[in-house]
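hey so i finally got around to running both of the ones u sent me last week. sorry it took forever, my laptop kept dying halfway thru and i had to restart like 3 times lol. anyway pasting them below in the order u listed, first the sequence line then the structure token line for each. didnt double check formatting much so if smth looks off just lmk and ill redo it

first one:
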Amino acid sequence: MTRVHSQARPAILKRTWSRKNLSLGLCRACTRPRAVLPNGHVLSRCEFHRGRQHVIQPFYGYSPPKGLLSLSAFSDLAPLDLAYAAGLIEGEGCITPNSEKRSNRMSWRPYCRVSVAMTDEEPVKWLYELFGGTMRPKPTKNPRHKDQFHWEVGGRRAGAVMAVLLKFLLIARHKRAAALVVKVSSIAGWWQSSAHSGKNPPEIRQLLRKLSEEAGSWRNDRGIPHR
């Protein structure tokens, strides 16, 4: 049975869409109008690009670290800015130390991520300009909801951010997660501990496994099941 798509027609302009960041009612990948379903729901792509894997996402930018990013890379920032950033991350963000173990491989690899998602663009853009990383808009599927703006840093950059914000965090659980992010990021070459576990000395592999288990227990304390 052939599926008949709804005919594309000009999208309903949401009041919260930004003119400079989101094309007004246009597809993410081209200049065609966004598709509208019979129930009035506005899709993020036009009829032609629906379901395509190569659709270009709206993107603000990326600041790749040149070489190894030192954990003291942001130590020269003003304390007032650091305190405000810590409040944004504690109130609207997420500090995620986690671990993964691939099947049939001797791999205990921790990874770290710090992210903030808000409907207000200015604070998220300020974090992006302060620490780098990635920032992108996240259009909502429900036309009654506001679109979000998402900022994220990971790896060594996340460790450098948490190293300067650790003393400004107030919640004990967030402090523990931030300290774990800094601890993981301080190990030289931790990201190379993948399938070939012989790349690192045995003591480094043992420490990585211990940190991965600690990251897993942190998830369990929050009520998040192990993967």
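and the second one:
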Amino acid sequence: TRKVLNVCEKNPIGEHPLNYDESDPFDICAASYALIYHGNPLVNYISAGAVDLPEFKGQLCRVTKET
């Protein structure tokens, strides 16, 4: 593992471009791993500190298994 990390650190290349705005704060949906940018609607699971997109409202929280 250390050899792989050393090679990666010596030759950092972006093989997988990420599609996000690094200057705009966001959360990550616990159900779909999609980005939820600040100001967009979300479902907040306060006890878990997790958030979901509104389409997952009423489903079990992926973190606490509660609704």
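quick thing i noticed on the 2nd:
DSSP finds one helix and four strands in the chain.
anyway thats it, ttyl
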